[in-house]
Amino acid sequence: MGRTRKPLRAAIIGLGRLGSRHARHLANQVQNVELVAACALDEKQLKWAQDELGVKTTYTNYKDMIDTEDLDVIFIVAPTPFHPEMTIYAINAGLSVFCEKPLGLDLEKVDEMAEVIRSHPDQIFQSGFMRRYDDSYRYAKKIVDDGGIGNIIYMRGYGIDPISGMNSFTKFATEADSGGIFVDMNIHDIDLIRWFTGQEPVQAYGLTSNIAAPQLADIGEFETGVAQLKMDGGVIATLIGGRHAAHGNQVELEIMGSNGWLRVGEHPDLNRVTVFNENGVVRPSLQSFGERFDDAFTDEVQDFVHNVIVGKQPEVTVDDGIKALRIAKACQQSADAGKLVDIRL
């Protein structure tokens, strides 16, 4: 089932904010893989890949790259609407695929993508839920699994970007469909809630606002989204997504148990330094998701490479990606309709 060639020959589609991070990790940190080709529409990004990462060949058409290069694996970090067609093409070409979240925006296309993946069981597909690879979340998961806080009663997940990213997001959402606040921002929190509880949601109620960024209404986006989920085992969960944190990047998870609480990322500290100056007592804060989860991004890709080499399907499956997407869309549907929505996975 697995491939024996080491290092694996890899290509990447997409060299934007996240794609460039994955590309850098593949070129400099991840073992048993060689980044031999890259595809992007921006010539400056392709030149960066050649000059800074030593990528030998670059393309502006992903099909040309897959058809031409001798590849084992491909990393898809392109805009979300293109994920299904790119995955289908790569799987049908015999490649294993790492695809960033979300899997897509059109559920029919995502379902078609899943069928193609399932019809090629000897190829590895992994979805990019990197928070499962973060040491803090893994530590908290072990405490929960060991009964350290009793039964989970309630969970709350924050995913709020810094104000400094507003212009970048506005440009991105003007040029492409982000999927909305819940799909774009809270899909990680949804995955964590399913992972920690082992339960599935049955109802969602969502609310949105643009108080902090009214200009987003012009492109059909919302700055803040809040959703309540009712899980089939009784757990209640709250999702909070936003793009206007003044202090930095706020990614937090709270787990309330019958015998204790856990909070992961309660304070988004950049480091362990406390500054005492004319501004008072200050703790520098993380300013991007990349800073916060850099190790997790590396570890998930290393796990994918290992899975391909040994022929092992990953812990994070295409079904996890589909369920998270359906749940996020139900939250947005509820917010748009102003009523409770039943979830049928």
From TrEMBL:
Q: Which UniProt keywords apply?
A: Oxidoreductase
Q: Which InterPro entries match?
A: Gfo/Idh/MocA-like_OxRdtase_N (IPR000683), GFO_IDH_MocA-like_dom (IPR055170), NAD(P)-bd_dom_sf (IPR036291)
Taking every annotated instance into account, which residue ranges of this chain make up the domain GFO/IDH/MocA-like oxidoreductase? 137-263
Q: Which residues are in the Gfo/Idh/MocA-like oxidoreductase N-terminal domain?
A: 8-123
Similarity annotation: Belongs to the Gfo/Idh/MocA family.
From the Swiss-Prot or TrEMBL record, give the protein name: Inositol 2-dehydrogenase
Classification lineage:
Bacteria, Bacillati, Bacillota, Bacilli, Lactobacillales
